[in-house]
Specification:
homodimer, about 300 residues, alpha/beta, 2 domains, 8-stranded mixed β-sheet, 14 strands, about 30% helix, NAD(P)-bd_dom_sf (chains A, B), nucleotide binding (chains A, B), D-galactose 1-dehydrogenase (chains A, B)
Chain lengths: ~300, ~300
Amino acid sequence: MAEPLSVALVGIGKIARDQHIPALNADPDWTLAATVSRSGGVDGVENFADLPQMLEARPDIGVVSLAVPPVPRFAMAAAAIGAGRHVMLEKPPGATLAECHALSAQAQAAGVTLHATWHSRMAHGVAAAKEWLAERELKRLRVTWKEDVRRWHPGQEWIWQAGGLGVFDPGINALSILTEILPAPVHLSRAVLDFPGNRDTPIAAELDFAHPGGAEVSAVFDWRQEGPQTWDIEAETDAGTMRLSDGGATFRAEGAAPVEGPDREYPRLYARMAELVRAGTSEVDLAPMVHVADAFTLGRRRVVEPFDW
Amino acid sequence: MAEPLSVALVGIGKIARDQHIPALNADPDWTLAATVSRSGGVDGVENFADLPQMLEARPDIGVVSLAVPPVPRFAMAAAAIGAGRHVMLEKPPGATLAECHALSAQAQAAGVTLHATWHSRMAHGVAAAKEWLAERELKRLRVTWKEDVRRWHPGQEWIWQAGGLGVFDPGINALSILTEILPAPVHLSRAVLDFPGNRDTPIAAELDFAHPGGAEVSAVFDWRQEGPQTWDIEAETDAGTMRLSDGGATFRAEGAAPVEGPDREYPRLYARMAELVRAGTSEVDLAPMVHVADAFTLGRRRVVEPFDW
């Protein structure tokens, strides 16, 4: 086996503790060599108050993984690339498409790896759904992504601030799967975005897509779902139906073996990052983010009741 | 001189009569061979009620120019490319970025020319401003685009409908110049969009951009400007100041000869289209539209007083 890769993890919040740190600790191919956090790090790992200090003090760490909200991420990614480090970005890869294009160009010029991750694409059932759809003619596809924002983003004010994406923060996970499993690209034809009267980002959205073969493709995202949570993609084709549920983890289809298994999204993201770094290449697919930007551009805004935690 | 190119012009509205038709009539390199319009065409030119009829009846016409609003444009462009025609798109090239990517891919696969035009880039002073800025270090740049919507878009309801872009319809002209003249790309860092309470698109916008060299780059778009109209880009550098005014037509700078002249934007767009068709290549730069999509995604929404004609 190759020498383990050293990574500094920036932003020690919920997603870092729930996903990044367990994935890194379980993988002999990776060493969590430092953290960057103003609110405390991880036992036994050197913590820095800010990224410039870490970049200065630890030239031995070749990879920087950014688990911070999209708005501050650009400056950090640009600084890390500028210091010759490989960079892995939590989804979405930035607050704007233009900054993602700029980072891609910077990484290419610097000869380092940039990996814009889409963790939901690594869910168990996604590859099976893609294979199944590739052999069939799509008639109808419906994305239903309904969850309780209070449960999954408790007190996270940045999601309600302009640029925080609101319900598109989980919704972009659905779009990352959709753009992965569909054989032909779709584009948004209509969108309605529901904004709470006291918030700058939407709490719900309905999207219709135009499909080159004329299939009906639509999505509904809602952050007001209490009780059971729903992260489903259902498709009807000329040869049966399929359902990808649990955020991509479970695949069921007529005439195909079921696929499911325990969560392995972040372990697979880090495995992919190790491959990219060793191969000296980058992976930046902005298609899910293009659909989000298109929804904000094309979408009709509806004001709905105020949201308070 | 090469054989003139035959073009069908689709959408005989204000922009067609003010710009496309005079440009085509004055250019011996082009023949306006047909129009497509439900509300009447041009004396002496065959008119069709819809595009499919024209594509069927006139296989001799190799080029289709689309001067219709962005929302219906995709289906028309896809049909024209599907019928093996070269396509020229009014700005903006589509209602969504995803559909522009899809058209580019379709045109490439079909081996036809796709030209996403940005008429303001063809204004007299733009090339001089680009050259002047290329040799200097930018300190501050300010875009001021203030016009009277009642004067320039009288009764055009589509500009207020979701997807119609509102004040970004003229604002994207400013962004097309900005992205052309700046030596290094910028990305949006903050935006405030003012929506009239009774409309789905903004009537004004303030944009701040991050510049790789730390220059202050900002833009203000406003559709409520009565009296004198303003379409200016002013820049301060380490070696003097410049002003590009009248929508790019007039260039003035310290230490440089002034540049100005009569409007020649659409004649130059058709000249460029002829070059592209004969060279068998396409030109689709989505950078101005990326900034618009980023502004809708990142922008804070402010509700302002209702707008009525």
